[in-house]
Specification:
Elements lengths: L12 H9 L2 H11 L5 H8 L3 H13 L3 E7 L4 E6 L1 H4 L2 H13 L47 H6 L7
Antiparallel strand pairs: 1-2
């Protein structure tokens, strides 16, 4: 299985991520995969996506290492698409995107909500720092150049000069 995440992509983690999962159908296919869909016809029926678009998107997801294609039937040859570990690692991103969308809708207009499986209680996901448990969406958290940053990235995040 080829994995198209390359070291040269690391110049900007946002552009790298969007290059791999920023296309509309890609996120919807991944969402369906998290809901247990694995077969071409399941994805197509649920998403109402054209065969050619679904074929292209699934091929890309396999090439990127987010899904694994395995044969489940020989005659005729049939395949299923299962999330890889890398693909499963995108679940928090999908959950957060859905929550962001729901925050902008009146409660009665939400078509899908996140709940705790056992209790059925609705939950509100937030992004927190693993070490401190503090939310990281406030102004006290900022991006800065990382150890592998290009010169352009370092210039972008250099501290402002004092006059």
């Amino acid at each position: 299985m080829a994995n198209r995440f390359r070291p040269e992509d690391l110049s900007c983690p946002l552009s790298t991520t969007l290059r791999h999962v920023g296309e509309w159908w890609t996120l919807l296919i991944l969402h369906d995969a998290f809901d247990g869909y694995t077969r071409f016809d399941e994805f197509q029926r649920n998403l109402k996506i054209s065969s050619s678009m679904l074929t292209t998107r699934l091929r890309t997801l396999v090439e990127d290492g987010l899904l694994e294609r395995t044969q489940y039937q020989e005659k005729p040859a049939r395949y299923e698409y299962v999330l890889t570990e890398l693909g499963r690692s995108l679940r928090p991103v999908i959950v957060t995107l859905a929550a962001w969308g729901n925050e902008r809708l009146p409660a009665g207009e939400r078509t899908m909500i996140l709940v705790e499986a056992e209790s059925g209680d609705e939950v509100e996901p937030v992004v927190v720092d693993r070490a401190s448990g503090r939310r990281v969406d406030g102004p006290e958290y900022v991006f800065t150049a990382g150890p592998a940053a290009s010169e352009a990235m370092r210039r972008r995040y250099e501290p402002p000069r004092t006059r």
